Amino acid sequence: MNFIISTISILISVAFYTILERKILGYIQIRKGPNKVGLMGILQPFADAIKLFNKNLITAENMNFSMVYMTPAFSLMISIIMIPIISFNNYPMFDNKHTILLFFILSTMSVYFILMIGWTANSKYCHLGSIRSVAQMISYEVSFFLIILFIAIMSNSYLLTQISESQILLYFFWGNMILFMIWTTSCLAETNRSPFDFAEGESELVSGFNVEYMGGWFALIFLAEYMSMLILSLMSTIMFFKQLNNLNSMMILIMFSLLLIWVRGTLPRFRYDMLMKLSWKIFLPMSLFMVPLSMFMSFYFI
């Protein structure tokens, strides 16, 4: 029952997260954003959902029909499966000693579904977009895992509740701001968000890996993307700023979620070679340096 209530709550929050993004991007560009449906456009996401799920699905002859129908739902399902491992107020729905490793495994599985979304459509634009997305996500998962390992060493546990309890005296954010910056950038790259949105590079790939997907398929793919953004915001708050059990941590969660939107309205898209250079030549050496440092700190000071 807790899982059902949490899933419905996060799906509703995803709907309002999309309207928040459109309003913030509108004001960044000195315009209003959606403001017709409901009070100040508050019901716009529900109108969009009704429109998208009522559209006819058009399939090309060379599509793999069964896979095309399943893969968008699978990509959303992976994001939903992550919900029980997140502990709210020190009570995780899925009690496991290795919750942070389980989170990493599930987040890496989304790579396969993006590859399947691009491959099953049998379109060159879809295929190129998905290959670029997979290369990008795999590159940043290396530093992503090293930062998770750093947090696990600092807290001497893979359990999210224990990681939270280790920050009672001092947040891991203080003293690890560079690592937090690398983590935030990796979160943007993992979710294919601007300035790393190469999977849907409109200027050269039309719309990237989702170009052949319309209606309900399109809605499911983007529900998965925005849900993964919210889940990463939750995980970032727990890993660097303690548990989600007071107003302070909720404000940090909201600020991190807004940061992911604000970056899109501010920074231009990277070049692809610069993306790979940032991952392998800058983030990886810095992450590799920080993990032994964390071992030294945890051995002598904790």
Task: Describe the model.
The protein is mostly helical and 302 residues long. It has one domain (3-301). The protein has helices at residues 2-28, 44-53, 65-81, 99-120, 124-155, 160-165, 177-190, 202-205, 216-241, 247-266, 272-301. The radius of gyration is 20 Å and the shape is globular. The model has no long low-confidence stretch (mean pLDDT 83). It is a multi-pass membrane protein. The chain crosses the membrane at residues 6-25, 66-88, 100-122, 142-161, 168-186, 213-232, 244-262, 282-301. It catalyses: a ubiquinone + NADH + 5 H(+)(in) = a ubiquinol + NAD(+) + 4 H(+)(out). Its EC number is 7.1.1.2.
State the distance separating the first and last CA atoms. 39 Å
Tell me the fraction of residues in β-strands, as a range. Answer: under 5%
Assembly form of the protein:
single chain
Query: N-to-C SSE series?
Result: HHHHHHHHHHH
Mean pLDDT: 83
Low-confidence stretches: none
- Helicity range: 55-70%
Biggest sheet descriptor: none
Described by the principal axes of the CA atoms, the overall outline is globular
Number of strands: 0
Radius of gyration: 20 Å
Total number of helices? 11
How many domain units? Answer: 1
- Computed structural class: mainly alpha
